[in-house]
Amino acid sequence: MNVFLTGGTGFIGWHLSQLLFELGDSVTIATRNPDKHAARAKGKDDGARVQFVPLGTDLSLYMKGCDVVVNLAGENLFGKRWTSSVKKRLYDSRIQTTRSLVDAMKRLDKKPDVFLSGSAVGYYGDCGSEKLTEKRGAGNDFLARMCQDWENTALNAESLGIRVVLSRTGVTLGREGGALATLLPVFKSFIGGSVGSGTQYFPWIHIDDICKSMVFAVRNKDLAGPFNATAPKPVTMNEFARALGDVISRPSLFRVPEFALNMVLGNDAASMITNSHRAIPARLRENGFTFHYDDIGQALGQILKS
Description:
With 306 residues, the protein is of the alpha/beta class. It has twelve helices and 15 strands.
């Protein structure tokens, strides 16, 4: 396949590009700093099959001949208070990029077969212990509304005859980035533990499984619309903290209370951690996808001991 990818220099996108290379696919990565990232790939075996192009130009110029468009672009949600200006940047980085991709595909004589666009389990809002399949409607907080608009913008590509799949992503676990890279130093310093109440569900997925699920969704012609990109056995925050402590032989006794998170990050940003998303990957499993990592202890052990 010839794949056009935004967000390809981020944590998930870079891993996805490596998997695509292993499968023999060619990838064009749109980024704001193409020269910088081209140097990152220089000298690797996959160098002949990756091209870096500038994001923000007429993307249709670089999409010609592509079979698949994958959209994982979006400003990082973590580590800052969601002020009005930050919310606008978070929203625009997702919706405007998605809109520009759909507009670019309109200008192509030969359209891609598939458009895979990112989303998140934050689409559902705070749902307690309810099991969340893809049939569940959207929540009402800022993140839920942003995800809903993000998905609806991507779905405009269906009018072009393009199959659209939407990856509602959970908390992706890998050593080089994401939540685990933030939590690991805290646990190694013997001050790790649950965040918030500890009873909220933590919708995790191993980095290998999320990348393989995206390739699966692109190649499975029977799959369209949203799918939950989460492991089939979600755990509570308490269970996750205990599993992480066990794997690295550290205690998980400390707790960051919800009010403290709200004071530091504000209610909206803190809700990403304190809201409960018991997301179940119903559509992936119905379509025959097999998870390699479905146990949190197994997943953390592989990541941290490999």
